[in-house]
User: What shape does this take?
Amino acid sequence: MKVSVFRKEHFNAAHRLHNPEWSEEKNRSVFGKCNNPNYHGHNYELIVKVSGYPDPQTGYVCDMKWLSDLIKKEVTKKFDHKNLNLDVEDFKKLNPTAEHIAIVIWNKLRAHIDEELDLKVTLYETERNFVEYPS
Assistant: This one.
């Protein structure tokens, strides 16, 4: 039977939602407060789900200490207390919406997790707004 394990992490980051191909008026109309030229911040909650079959020798689907260290290395240290638009290379040409942030995180983690294991990322931008990738 497949089992899922979850690791929850937290990071704070600022961003601005903005499409440089649009006028300032259209950006304000589409993105509202999230288009603030001086940026705005969120207290992101990240939940990483890894699913698979428990290893017959360890009983683990995934070593949680290893998973925690991976998330810290690939996500928290790179995103926490950063301006995503200015400080994180992944978002230099990618609008840092919650959707894009979740996909970027998934790709960063997927590269290090055994292909036999399923991976899902849930990212809470606010208490009420969150995204899941893949859906």
User: Anything to note?
Assistant: Strands lie at 3-15, 40-52, 82-83, 118-124, 130-133.
